[in-house]
Amino acid sequence: MSRIQELPNSLDEEPLSQASQISQLPGLTPESLTQSVPFPLPAKPASQNGANGTTPAMPPAMDSVKSRSVDEVLEMMNRTPLFMTSLDETDGKGGDNVELEALRALQYEGSKAEVAQGFRERGNEMARAKMWKDGKEFYGKGIAVLTQKDQDKVVNKVDDIKDQGTKEDAELLREVEEACYINRALCNLELKNYRSCTLDCAATLRLNPRNIKAYYRSAQALLVLDKITEAEDASAHGLAIDPSNTALTTLQTKIRARRDVLESIAKSRRNRAERQRKEEMVLKTALKARGIKSRSTEQPPEMEDAAIRLTPDPVSPMSTLTFPAVLLYPLHLQSDFIKAFSETDTLSSHLSYILPLPWDEQNEYSIENVEGYMETVSGGMIKVGKHVSLLKMLSSGKVEVVDGIVKISVVPKARADEWIEEVRKRKRIAS
How far apart are the C-alpha atoms of 294 and 271, rounded to whole Å? Predict the structure, then answer.
């Protein structure tokens, strides 16, 4: 039976110092704790709390952290994988983050097949959760391990150089590679990376020409890209292998329907282009037959849908010509736009609803008190009758239609001579 040993009364009851307590623990010394801090921060001398020095000092690790600012501690925590909020691949001194590199190296431990299979399984988990971007990344890592394209990050970390493997191992590697490619194709399809999807499907078919999923996903991507011929070819190859595949049959029906739609659109586009070409030809013939001169400048004005037209039938030279027209009031720097000035219309027929002008405070503009002028081919000015049809004005051979717009200057009779002299003066200065 064990006995309880009583402590002698003379035992010194003074509390043990921190150093004494540590020294009694096997394998631990004050120096080892000073060097072991939560983060690789240089420890500062422990602070002395209390005036008489009897209060125990803080442990070195806690004192090391306490002696740093909040920003320094957060910065160091962000270099520790467990506490990372953003990726920091340095140690803060220009070197590599050893802890992060160690964690990365763990995913490459094992044989090539094991590592690739691990990435495949992680990719499958992401795909089941519809986390397509992450799944694509894991499948890509598996492919990189198998194809050894990334020498720095893959080959040096895969410890299976000596294991060239048996025939069964080679078959396993091929199976994993095929699965990674076809599953990454699914991720790319969901991410709308259609070209990448077709490339992954092509890589799958190089490994296994009878992979139905590769034909199906490739046809889906090609259909979205409106590459109908290629999509039909992919679906046809898949159905040649599995004629009863419902998904491929349904997809082939969609491809044919889309082909019909595109053919209809292309036909309509061709018809519109042909009609437009015919309208332009008939319009040129109509202008020439009426003796109307026209030309275009290098920078014609933007007029939206306003243009010279034949109405009601644009492809009949016997239809009536209509012109976009601008009535200029040069003495007041104002203008009015007429979208369709018919060749049979007169200037007075349009002035009748335009006048009086809201800005004409002096009442200078009325049908009886204004005159119309047009610029001649030679650069001069010619007076046009207010009751003369537009066709008669344009077919005289003295004026021309520039950039498809008829321009008529309207000035008060009382100031017409003054304005004409000003125009001539400006032309003399310009020449």
Answer: 28
Mind listing the pLDDT tens digit for each residue in 113-131? 888 999 999 999 999 999 9
Question: Would the pTM of this model clear 0.70, i.e. be above it?
Answer: no
Give me Rg for the CA atoms of the chain.
44
Render pLDDT for 305-340 as a digit per residue (tens, 0 to 9).
999 999 999 999 889 999 999 999 999 999 999 999
Predicted confidence (pLDDT) per residue in 353-363, tens digit: 999 999 999 99
Q: Is 325 helix (H, G, I), strand (E, B) or coil?
A: strand
Cβ(411)–Cβ(373) under 8 Å?
A: yes
Query: 10 Å Cβ neighbour count for 190?
Result: 15
Secondary-structure percent of the chain, ordered helix, strand, coil, rounded to 5: 50, 10, 35
Burial 54-75 (b: 16+ CB within 10 A, else e): eeebbbbbebbbebbeeeebee
Residue with tokens 């890509």: 140
CB 394 within 8 A of CB 292: yes
What Å distances lie between residue 29 and 26, 39, 53, 59, 60, CA to CA? 8, 19, 21, 12, 12
Measured at the alpha carbon of residue 191, what is the angle toward residues 188 and 195, in degrees to the nearest 5? 45
Q: Residue 181 has what pLDDT?
A: 97
Confidence category of residue 10, pLDDT binned at 50, 70, 90: very low
Q: How far apart are CA 320 and CA 17, in angstroms?
A: 113
231 has a pLDDT exceeding 50: yes
Query: Which residue in 59, 58, 77, 80 sits closest to 69, CA to CA?
Result: 77
Count how many residues are written for the chain: 431
Residues 6 or more apart from 287 whose CB is under 8 A from it? 294, 308, 321
Q: How many CA atoms lie within 13 A of 27 on its CB side?
A: 0
Bridge-partner residues for 317, per DSSP? none
In this prediction, residue 379 has a pLDDT band, given cuts at 50, 70 and 90, of confident
